[in-house]
Amino acid sequence: VITSDTEVKNIKMSLYKSAQFSINLNQKTWHIISAYSTAVTKKAQAQAQRNVTDVGKSLACKGFLRSHKPYHPPQNVPDKVRSICNNLKISFASDYKLENLEEKFKFLSACFQDFQHSVPNSQVHELQSIGDVVKFYETSVNTTVPYDALKNAKLPENLHIQHDYVRFNPDTDSKFNGQTAFPKSSTLVTGLKYRGKYEGYNAKRSWP
């Protein structure tokens, strides 16, 4: 309730034009009917919603270079899961819910020891029943990057992909007898991933 004309003017400046009021001129009392929101609040909500959407898309796009080990499921996955359930005295019914967190932790830990394949943190909430766990361990995991998969692909005759880098090293070069077009340029391998795979070369430079 607002009883001052000065306060009314200040409030009117901070509200949207769409806000509705009921006025009692005798008592000089104004009642705000509709809720209002400032531009800052709406902007913050839109920004937060956009950030969540962008983060979700970013996580969905990450897949090829994430640190996952390849996994090839055995043929007797249901039998192994049944054996684990018997050891832990858990029902093997496909629709049995893993609602007890302690029970679920022990069960997934036993599955990891048996299959040597752990459940990623992002997928733990998806395994809600025994059937979900069996389906998870029946799914293979292929960590081959699509570019590397082209090595085993049958390509057209007019297409050739050079998989290994050609790095010039005058000490081991046999094609040009160690003669380089850039005598003072070194071949540096800066990436930690490829330092052990490719050998660099430090050229001898005269002073200055």
Q: Residue ranges: pLDDT <50 for 5 or more in a row?
A: 14-26, 28-37
**CATH architecture level-2 label of the largest domain:** Orthogonal Bundle
User: How do the SSEs run, as a string of H and E?
Assistant: HEEHHHHH
In whole angstroms, the N-to-C terminal distance is 83 Å
The number of E-state strands comes to 2
> How big is the Rg?
33 Å
CATH class designation of the largest domain: Mainly Alpha
Family: Belongs to the mitochondrion-specific ribosomal protein mL50 family.
Main location: mitochondrion
Subcellular location: Mitochondrion
Protein name: Large ribosomal subunit protein mL50
SSE layout:
Layout: H1 5-14, E1 21-24, E2 29-32, H2 39-61, H3 77-88, H4 101-115, H5 130-137, H6 146-149
Antiparallel strand pairs: 1-2
Family: Belongs to the mitochondrion-specific ribosomal protein mL50 family.
GO cellular component, one term: mitochondrial large ribosomal subunit
Protein name: Large ribosomal subunit protein mL50
Task: Write a structural description.
By secondary structure, the protein is mostly helical. It has two domains: 1-62, no CATH class; 64-177, Non-ribosomal Peptide Synthetase Peptidyl Carrier Protein, Chain A (Orthogonal Bundle). It contains six helices and two strands. It has helices spanning 5-14, 39-61, 77-88, 101-115, 130-137, 146-149, and strands at residues 21-24, 29-32. Strands 1-2 form a two-stranded antiparallel sheet. It is elongated.
